[in-house]
Every structure is written in structure tokens, then in C-alpha cells.
Specification:
heterodimer; A: 278 residues; mainly alpha; B: alpha+beta; Jelly Rolls; 15-stranded antiparallel β-sheet; 10 helices; 26% strand
Chain lengths: 278, 520
């Protein structure tokens, strides 16, 4: 950080922004990389995603043709669990700084708060893109090896999972983007509320409460509307590869809903960060 | 805090107790004076109520009025289905009815205008003595069933098995029901001369004049397909020979009534067959009916309605807040270094954690209890007003659910405190506890997993604790979908809560050990 603050003294208001941004980016990357548990959290996220996906693929059988299961969605079930760890990861990237007081140093070094948030978001996006891709690809591979043994065979209308298949590719890419958006949602919420426990409570509440409440809603219309605005249910519509017409919301539109939630959280977060004292 | 900083008096047994009270007082002061926590706990109460009421606020489909909004209640106060076709006379005082049942046939709507033949496993035809034609009135019946042999059933929840085997033209069943005072005895025979007693029922306070006669009914057909379980309309037809009556029977013709007016929530007539009876030349009867005489259970056969635990869906929201506060109650001390002061004032570290658990648990208990006590009556009232069935429960069950919701919050708070003390990081601890309680529940009830895996999840994870809120009964004589996705937990209410409490105790115990073993 001392390098950075030194650089700021010599930089001018115009023209130096690019270099500043690069340095801020590098600083954020260093902080994320060297904070003790971050690597372990990412490993946990990938591991849980693959393990839960594999466990689900192991548990679900397809006894005959037309069993109505969505093989791709099954293999990617782990995303519902892995996202919790990703959310923690994103929240800690901000709340950790508030917890230790590091945020004061950060804001002294990079006074432009929007730059701080943008660099954090950029680093987070890159990291989650990489680990999310690893988790999703590994889940699909595990599913590809387990599912045929459970009756998901050509005879029952299931080709082996393959990224060459359009919907499968969309589900895979969509799941990675889903995880990135969850991280950005966590980042926005954490920036807004600062406290880690509160931020995680809010993010997990947003994700998990909608599906729980949807189960008791008796009216199909209300149920549909709830599913359309739920960040998790709508966002995970991108994983569906069969019965697309029965989805409450289209795959990409659903991901768009989650993107809207993430954008709203980031907007609130950046406004609060901009306005208040660290 | 200043009080706890005064030097401890010599450690006599009395002072020990006073020491714990002081620690408790100190912890209570810490909790009470952090405005964020107090606001959060008030918020937990509020969201539990609001989410619960909003979640169940949808208007009833079809815009039915408030009049249709209750199940008939049986003599024990339980919700019952009481829909069957009844061919009856009045019986005053003692009496006996004996009748041969020649066949029990059935028709199932297989969809798209096709029908299938065959009686459902719990299609029923036989003799029934019933206090009145009102739904829910006391009864006793001896009957042949489609797949479970001859049975004696009374007052909806009681079911006694008799000889097994199916009724057919070649092997008819003679059935006999005897009323003597409050006592009713059912017997069966395969030849009309050698009788086997199936069972007897005591119906205390049964009116002297009752309705008695022949009946037939059939619940909907349960069809398991790979895509899930479906229910289709089904009817049953019983063919009886001439009934033989002795005792105080009314003179005149037999009359036929569809008890309940329609087939109820667990039955429905097919498009082609309606309820009714015909009298044959030899004085026998053919009776056709649909519906069921049985307690209401959850799942699709429950119809459009709510059970008590539905109103408590907000518990999830409240728990998330309780967990966050419970965690920060200890991790906050680590972060600010307050824990050093705390253990300097109270060196026995188990006592510090114990006091914290008592404070956090006490507040959580109050939240769960009060939220449940407010939400359930309001939710029930408003759901009934909008035309929904509300599954009735006894007041003992109501109390169990309310107290259980309080204890659920206690266990979650203590679990959060223990995990927080172990991990010392609020973020990871909060996420771990929330995910371990809510995620298994979501995975188990969303229908992604097969029933076996879902039930396993709700046995071994902290989510098992939600079983304490379950109120839906299960009966062997009623076919339904008894799975987590329809609100049935694999463990009994208190056993499920015990699993969650086990996790909380484990986390708390480990936390005490770890806190003793390491520097703060």
C-alpha cells in the first residue's frame, strides 16, 4: 500500500487515472489473495458445489423413458449450496476490511470510493469467473460419469452431458454468471451494511427465503410472481434444459432478474459508500 | 460491567452462584445496550409475523366464500372426510343388520375420457351405523375394502383389520353389525353360518335413534408415475344381497343419501358415474359412491387449505436474524477485544459462554414463542375469512407448535453462539449456521431429490428441528403422499427438535472446551 500512496502524491488529476486504476486493481488483488482464508473459501465453494451436485446425481434415478428429469440441472444442483460460500467470500472482501479497520487505509490510498468499489467488483468477478468455471465444469464431468449409471441413458432419452449441446452450454455458462452475480450481490450488500454477519444474513435471506415462502403460497399466480422476482429461483432458471415452457421465467430473463438485484445492491452500496464516513 | 470487575469474594458455594448471576447480569447488560441487536431482535419478531402472514395471504382460488372454509370435524375434533353414498333406515335401540356382499367393483378416470376398472385399495362397501346424516357425526362400520380385506372402522381414526382377501361373486362376504347400547360389534363370514368377530367399538353417548344401512365409497386413485404422484377420480360399487334386519328398525322404504353432498377433498366422482343405489328384484342393493370416511391428512388429498405450520413460514426469516445476532454476540467480543475484559472479570470461561447462551437463548425463545402465538391465530382467522380450509389441531398441538417454535429459536441461537465461538469469525459462522439449517430444508422440500434422500437430509441435518412445527397426521388407512415435499418429516416432532438441540449442544460443548483451551 505504501507504493500506492507514494504514487498518488506524484499523480495529477488528469491522465493519471488509468495508472491509478491499475494500481488500485493490483492492490485489491493483493488484499484478496493474501487474506488468510480466501483461498480456502474458494476451494470450499468449488468442493461443495461438485460434491452436492455429485450426491444429487447419485441419488436421483431415471427408471424409464420420460421420467421428466433435467439431467443438466441435477448435475448443477450444487450451485445452490456453493453460492452460499461464494456469498460469504464476496461479503468478507468488504466486511473484512471494515472489521480490521483496513478500510481506512484503503480509502486513504484510493480516495475515489467508486474506484475502490469498481476495482473490488472487477477482481471479484475475475476470481469467481475462474473458480465458478472450475466448479461448473467439474460438476458436469462428475454428472457425466454418474448419471448414465442411474438410468440417464440414450435409451431413456438422455445423451451424455456435453458442452457441445446448446442448452447444456447455456446452463453451464449461465451457472458461472449466476455465481458471479451472487458475488456482486454480496459485494453490494456488504458495502451497504458493512457488518459481515448482517450482510450474510441479508444475502442468504434474499436467496433462500423466496423459495421457502413460495412453498406455502397456495395461489398459482402469486407463486409464479414470487418465483419471477426471487433472485435464486429466477436466476437458476438459466440451468433448465427441459420443459422450458413451464418455467416461471425464461433462462436469460431469469438471470437478468438476479442481475437487477445485484445492480440494485451495488447501487445502494456505492451511494452509501460515497456519502458516509468510512 | 463495573459490578463484574470488582474482585470476586472468596469462592464459597454461595458466592459461586452469585458469581453466575453477576455474569448473567453482565451479559444481559451487554446485550440490552447494543441498540443494533435489540432492533434486530425486534425485527426478527416482526419479519416472522409479516413473512408468515404475507406468505399465506393469497386469495382462495375460485373465490369461494367463508362458509366453505372448514373441514367437518369428527368426534375427537380432528378434520375428517365424511363423504359416501348411504342407503339407510332409522334404527331405534338395539338392532342387527346382516348382509352378504357379492362384489366390490370400481371405476377410475384414467384421463382423456378413458376409464379403468378395479376397486381402489381403500374403496369401501359394507354396513354403517351413524348417529345422523351430518358430516362428522359418530359412526361404526364393518366393511370390505378393495385391497385390505374386511375392516371394522369407527369414529374416523380407528381401524381394525379382519380377515384378508378380496370379495368376488365366487367368494362373497357376509357382514354383520350389532348395536347394543353404546357398543357396536362387527363380524364377518364367508358362508353365512361360521362367523368371525372383526372388532367392536364403544361410542359413548351415541343417540338412541340412529341411521343405519349400507354404504359404498372410494377415495381417489393414487397413481405413481416417474414424473410424480397423481390422484384421479374413482368410484366404488358394492353389490349386496337382501339385508336381514332384527331389532327396532323403521318401517318403510330405504332412502339413499350422498352424505356431505359431494365426494369431499379426498374423493371425486368420475365424469361418467354418479352416486346412487338400485334395488334388485330379490331385495338386494347395488350402491355406488365416492369419497371417504376417514381423517383428513396432508398432501394432495387435503384439498386447498393451510395447516398450522404454513403460518409459521416466517420462522425462517426470524431464524436468520436470530442466528446473525447469536453469532455476533460472541464474535463481536473477539473483534473489539471485549472478550479480554469479560474473561478477566469472569475467569471461568464455561460460565461466560453459559451466561451468553442463557441471554441469547432467552431472547430467542421469547421471539419464537410470541411470534407463533401472534401469527397462528391471525393467520387462521384471515385464511378462513378468505375461504381456505384450515387444518384443525387440538390445543395441545397448538401449544406444542408455539413452544416448539420458541425452542427452535433457542437451539438456533445457541448453535450460532457455539459456532461463532469456535470460528471466531462472524461471516463464516453465520453462513455456516444459516446454510446448515435452511439449505437441507430447501433441498428436501423442493422435490429435486427422491423421497429417500430428502428424508435422510431431514433426519441428520439441523433442519430436522422444523419437525416440531409439523401438525399433519398420517394414517395407514389413508393413501396420500407422506413426504417432506408435502409437509411430512421423517422424525417425530420432539425427536426432530432433539436432533437440532444435539447439534447446538455439540457446538456449545466444543466451544466451551476450545475457549478453555486457548488464549483469548
Amino acid at each position: 500500500m505504501s507504493v500506492l500512496s507514494g504514487a498518488r502524491l506524484t499523480s495529477t488529476a488528469n491522465g493519471a487515472w488509468r495508472g491509478d486504476f491499475g494500481r488500485a486493481l493490483r492492490a485489491e488483488w493483493t488484499k484478496l489473495r493474501t487474506a488468510g482464508e480466501m483461498g480456502r473459501l474458494l476451494l470450499l465453494a468449488v468442493g461443495l458445489t461438485v460434491a452436492v451436485g455429485g450426491g444429487t446425481a447419485k441419488a436421483v434415478k431415471c427408471p424409464d423413458a420420460g421420467c421428466g428429469q433435467d439431467a443438466v440441472k441435477l448435475a448443477l444442483t450444487g450451485v445452490t449450496v456453493g453460492q452460499a460460500v461464494i456469498a460469504v467470500f464476496a461479503v468478507l472482501a468488504v466486511s473484512g476490511e471494515y472489521g480490521t479497520g483496513m478500510i481506512h487505509t484503503t480509502l486513504t490510498a484510493v480516495p475515489n470510493r467508486i474506484t475502490v468499489l469498481t476495482t473490488k467488483a472487477t477482481v471479484l468477478t475475475t476470481v469467481i469467473l475462474a473458480s465458478g468455471t472450475a466448479a461448473v465444469l467439474a460438476s458436469l464431468l462428475v454428472g457425466r460419469s454418474i448419471l448414465p449409471g442411474n438410468g440417464f441413458t440414450e435409451a431413456h432419452g438422455y445423451a451424455p452431458l456435453s458442452l457441445a449441446d446448446g442448452p447444456t452450454l447455456r446452463a453451464a455458462v449461465g451457472s458461472v454468471l449466476y455465481l458471479v452475480l451472487i458475488a456482486l450481490l454480496g459485494l453490494g450488500v456488504a458495502t451497504a451494511v458493512r457488518e459481515a454477519a448482517t450482510a450474510i444474513g441479508i444475502v442468504l435471506g434474499l436467496l433462500y427465503l423466496f423459495p421457502v415462502v413460495t412453498q406455502v403460497v397456495n395461489d398459482p399466480e402469486w407463486q409464479r410472481h414470487l418465483q419471477q422476482i426471487s433472485p435464486m429461483t429466477a436466476g437458476l432458471a438459466v440451468q433448465a434444459t427441459v420443459h422450458l415452457h413451464e418455467l416461471p421465467i425464461g433462462p436469460w430473463a431469469g438471470l437478468g432478474v438476479l442481475a437487477a438485484w445485484a445492480a440494485a445492491a451495488l447501487l445502494v452500496g456505492s451511494l452509501l459508500l460515497h456519502r458516509r464516513d468510512a | 460491567m463495573t459490578a463484574t470487575l470488582t474482585p470476586r469474594p472468596p469462592a464459597t458455594r454461595r458466592a459461586e452462584r452469585g458469581g453466575f448471576l453477576r455474569t448473567l447480569h453482565a451479559e444481559w447488560t451487554k446485550f440490552r445496550t447494543v441498540r443494533g441487536w435489540v432492533l434486530a431482535m425486534a425485527g426478527a419478531l416482526l419479519v416472522t409475523i409479516v413473512v408468515g402472514l404475507l406468505g399465506t395471504a393469497a386469495p382462495a382460488p375460485g373465490g369461494r366464500g367463508a362458509d366453505s372454509a372448514s373441514y367437518p370435524e369428527g368426534p375427537g375434533g380432528e378434520a375428517v372426510n365424511d363423504s359416501f353414498y348411504f342407503v339407510h333406515k332409522t334404527l331405534t335401540g338395539e338392532g342387527t343388520l346382516t348382509v352378504p356382499l357379492r362384489s366390490l367393483a370400481g371405476v377410475v378416470d384414467a384421463g382423456t375420457g378413458k376409464t379403468a376398472q378395479g376397486a381402489q385399495p381403500w374403496a369401501k362397501a359394507g354396513i354403517i351405523v351413524k348417529e345422523s346424516l351430518t358430516q362428522g357425526s359418530p359412526y361404526a362400520a364393518v366393511m370390505a375394502t378393495g385391497g385390505h380385506g374386511v375392516r371394522m372402522q369407527y369414529d374416523y381414526t380407528h381401524d381394525t383389520a379382519g380377515p384378508s382377501g378380496q370379495v368376488s361373486q365366487e367368494s362373497p362376504r357376509w357382514l354383520r353389525l350389532v348395536r347394543s347400547g353404546d357398543s357396536l360389534t362387527g363380524s364377518t363370514s364367508t358362508d353365512g353360518s361360521h362367523w368371525t368377530k372383526v372388532g367392536s367399538a364403544q361410542l359413548p353417548g351415541l343417540a338412541r335413534t340412529v341411521r343405519a344401512g349400507l354404504f359404498a365409497t372410494s377415495p381417489e386413485a393414487k397413481q405413481d408415475t416417474a414424473a410424480g404422484t397423481g390422484f384421479s377420480p374413482a368410484v366404488a360399487t358394492g353389490t349386496f344381497d337382501r339385508p336381514v334386519l332384527t331389532g327396532g328398525w323403521s318401517q318403510g322404504a330405504w332412502s339413499g343419501t350422498q352424505v356431505g353432498g359431494d365426494a369431499g377433498t379426498s374423493g371425486s366422482y368420475t365424469n361418467t358415474t354418479k352416486g346412487g343405489f338400485t334395488q334388485t328384484d330379490g331385495g338386494g342393493f347395488t350402491v355406488t359412491g365416492a369419497g371417504d370416511i376417514a381423517p383428513v391428512v396432508g398432501g394432495p388429498v387435503m384439498g386447498v387449505g393451510f395447516s398450522v405450520e404454513n403460518f409459521l413460514v416466517g420462522t425462517f426469516a426470524g431464524l436468520i436474524v436470530v442466528i446473525a445476532v447469536g453469532t455476533v454476540f460472541i464474535t463481536g467480543e473477539y473483534r473489539r477485544g471485549l472478550l479480554r475484559t469479560t474473561v478477566a472479570a469472569t475467569p471461568p470461561r464455561g460460565r461466560v459462554l453459559g451466561a451468553k447462551a442463557l441471554v441469547a437463548g432467552g431472547v430467542a425463545c421469547a421471539i419464537g414463542l410470541v411470534a407463533a402465538a401472534i401469527t397462528i391465530p391471525i393467520g387462521e382467522h384471515s385464511a378462513r375469512g378468505r375461504g381456505f380450509h384450515v387444518f384443525p389441531v387440538t390445543s395441545a398441538t397448538d401449544v406444542r407448535v408455539m413452544v416448539g417454535t420458541g425452542l427452535l429459536c433457542v437451539a438456533a441461537a445457541v448453535l450460532a453462539l457455539g459456532v461463532g465461538a469456535l470460528l471466531r469469525r462472524s461471516g463464516a459462522a453465520v453462513a455456516l449456521v444459516i446454510a446448515s439449517i435452511v439449505l437441507p430444508f430447501l433441498l428436501a422440500t423442493s422435490g429435486v431429490l427422491p423421497p429417500g434422500a430428502s428424508e435422510w437430509l431431514l433426519r441428520v441435518t439441523p433442519a430436522a428441528g422444523f419437525a416440531i412445527q409439523q401438525t399433519l397426521p398420517r394414517y395407514a388407512q389413508v393413501l396420500s403422499v407422506y413426504e417432506p415435499s408435502t409437509g411430512y418429516y421423517p422424525l417425530a416432532p420432539w425427536a426432530g427438535l432433539a436432533v437440532l438441540c444435539g447439534y447446538a449442544a455439540l457446538a456449545f460443548g466444543l466451544a466451551v472446551v476450545r475457549l478453555r483451551g486457548r488464549d483469548v
